[in-house]
Amino acid sequence: MKPLIAKSFLLVGLVAGSTISCRAMVSTGGVDPTFLPFLRNSPNECYYLDDFMPVPDGLVTGKAGNLDLRYYSYKTANYKEWTTKAIMLSFYSRNGRCWSLFEEYYIAE
């Protein structure tokens, strides 16, 4: 009789465990887009990015000559007329504080 009870508990445990893992695999929660502020693509504009930009999904920094570069990427964002797109914004700075936008891209699906 005891082996039958042990097998029953084992079977119940396996069924419960597979139900929990299936529920996690089937879950289709949507990702809320990040809302990006309107930025002008102009060398005369100066933005203090650290003060207001949402945290990006990816950030790459670098240098080209005397310019500091930053590339912000967002997997799902709303920016200007682009809604729910993967967005990449590129900035340059001469002093590391005041940044100007020089490229803006979205990834077409």
Layout: helices, strands, pairs:
Elements: H1 2-26, E1 34-35, H2 49-52, E2 58-64, E3 67-79, E4 82-93, E5 99-107
Parallel strand pairs: 1-3
Antiparallel strand pairs: 2-3, 3-4, 4-5
Helix content: 25-40%
Using only C-alpha atoms, the radius of gyration works out to 24 Å
In angstroms, what separates the terminal alpha carbons?
60 Å
Report on the biggest sheet. Answer: 5 strands, mixed
Query: How much of the polypeptide forms β-strand, as a percent range?
Result: 35-45%
Form type: elongated
Can you walk me through this structure?
There is one protein chain. By secondary structure, the protein is of the alpha+beta class. The chain has a domain at 34-107. Helix content is 27%, strand content 39%. It is built from two helices and five strands, in the order H-E-H-E-E-E-E. It has helices at residues 2-26, 49-52; strands at 34-35, 58-64, 67-79, 82-93, 99-107. Strands 1, 2, 3, 4 and 5 form a five-stranded mixed β-sheet that branches. The radius of gyration is 24 Å and the shape is elongated.
Descriptive key words:
109 residues; alpha+beta; five-stranded mixed β-sheet
Tell me briefly what this model is:
The chain is of the alpha+beta class and 109 residues long. The chain contains 2 helices and 5 strands. Strands 1, 2, 3, 4 and 5 form a 5-stranded mixed β-sheet that branches.
